[in-house]
Amino acid sequence: MRAAAATAMVLIAASVAAGCGGSSKQTAQPKPSTATGSTHADARATFDRAVRSALNENFRLSLYVLWHNRIPSWAQHSTRGPALAALRSSAATRQQRGIRVRSQPGHYTIVSVQLDPSYTRATAVVRDERRVFPYETGQRLGRSIAVDDHARIELRRLGETSRFVVWRVRPLR
Fold it and tell me: CA gyration radius for the chain?
């Protein structure tokens, strides 16, 4: 029964696409075709923006977790898998030690983005330069610390959507 219904839907879709069902006086006009290069470029641009959005959201999440030492409800919107587990683990360690980290504005740069040809995965290199201040029991500990982090970030696409999430973060030296 399902196969028959599916076949019927395919035939209906094919006849509509072919221009069938109109009067005999009307002929279907061919639609201008879009060049495959432009649709490929449009898809690539869409996925590139989605990757950059996930990277920026993950960065915002990382700064939040440094100060609050907890994972917020919106974390899975940008970060999952081993990357989220690592954030959770480091937040728990800092919380046990009573340490929080405040960040000064700095320079966060997405150095490069490489999309897999299937658009299901991406790899990015990011750099973060800033100063951070460690706090313990509400008191600032000494001077600020200069941070210059480079990381290779693996991202995965969520199903058939255009959204990506940060999956794994590996420091670059």
Answer: 24
